[in-house]
Amino acid sequence: MATTTHHPRSPGSMAAAGGLTVFAAVMLFIAGILDLFRGIMAIADDDVFLATPNYVFKFDLTSWGWIQLVLGAIAVVVSLGLFAKATWARVVGVGIAGLLIIANFLSIPYYPVWSLILIALYAFVIWGLCVTKKDTDDLA
């Protein structure tokens, strides 16, 4: 009697899981580009941003712009790794998205609505990368 190996997931669920990785890669790319632009804006012209006088976390806006610029650039590079299905990109993607959530939380006084939007985007990235297993990426 011949035995066949049966994958515990159906082809449809595996395709959906692979699609979540692509979704996370796209979201990370878009949010990384937006953080790049935000960093450039903070470095170039401080008048674009709102000033909140009584916020616990206060930073020099130009320095903060460089932080956003570097983290955004890393996010874009990691998203390209996700498109290439690199294993390192999944781990680094969760880490960089977590760092960018913290960075955007700390920058709420400078651009509150935009910070909250980017926090939500990075939360979706973490969800998309954590909900799938490595073996499902082969179908994406």
TrEMBL record:
Q: Which InterPro entries match?
A: DUF7144 (IPR055568)
Keyword Transmembrane helix listed? yes
Q: Which residues form the DUF7144 domain?
A: 21-133
Keyword annotations of the record: Membrane, Transmembrane, Transmembrane helix
Identify the domain of life: Bacteria
Report the transmembrane regions from the record: 20-44, 64-84, 91-108, 114-132
A Pfam family per the record:
DUF7144
Protein name, entry field = DUF7144 domain-containing protein
Q: Which organism is it from?
A: Streptomyces solicathayae
